[in-house]
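Re: the request from the purification team.
They wanted to know what the chain is likely to look like in 3D before they choose a buffer screen. I agreed to run a prediction and write the result into the notebook, where they can find it.
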Amino acid sequence: MVVLRPYDPADDAPAVYRLWQQALGDLWPLPYEMFQLITLDPLAYHQGDHLVAVSGDEIVGFIAVQISPEGLSAEGTLLVLLVAPAYQRRGIGRRLHDQAMSALKQSGVEKVHLGRGWSYFWQGVPVNLPGAWAFFAACGWQEVERSFDMIGDLAGYRTPAHIFPNLRRPTIAIAPATQGDAEAILAFEALHFPGWLRFYQRIVEHQSYADMVIAKDSELGIVGAACLVDQHVSWWQPDIRWLRLLGEQTGGVGVLGVAEPMREQGIGLALAARATECLRERGLAKSYLGWTWLVDWYGKLGYRVWQEYRMSSRHL
């Protein structure tokens, strides 16, 4: 008999991680520490959020959910659902799914996503897990759109000659930030991209100013910003989950945004190009872009699709 109960991180984590290894380890190898960081994110995890399915003394299923931190939104996420291969097609996954969805509704969640969240494994359902999507489709989920992770090779990278000359405002400079820019960067993010403010605050707190690239207009001040993702810096928190697949010498272009009135002027692509140059200058081998729809846009810099995801959400 299989019973469902709340997940106990202290006792259950090793067994659930073994479940990950059995079900996903070949396609999505993940260190144990990363699994813990995502499932137990202190800003989003609450005791009792996750569930396990138990047969006798053996954990044979697991579902992790997440509710947006208080005050942000009435949204939740299904982070991952695992069933041991020998126990699949017995209704265990459906029971975990339905009980988790019911608990989210009782908690006041109005909208649930597959993937994404405050911290997450994937932003959607990976296309290379077709069985997972078939399961969720059978549970009533519908694909809304696709998103992508991209990768760029840094060996020999050269920014295309037209990128910086194509900036339509000659008063804009694209360059790594300095300490004197820190306050203005945080103000810019708070105004234009409040959901990304925490990333820039972390960098500023560690005084890693050169890990931010800014577009600064001589008249308007900062009109765009991007950050670098590099596991060798002091503020690093495992922001690239799949280094075992990508390679240890992988960095990335983090959250990048341009003030809405300044878009369509070549600023964003110039920021991405300068950030990519910075990663190359550090001796990294690859640049990773997580969760984007701009395949053709980043493709202008030589980035290519690495993984593809089905995005889905539903109202409760």
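For the purification team: The chain has a mean pLDDT of 95.
Please add any questions underneath this entry.
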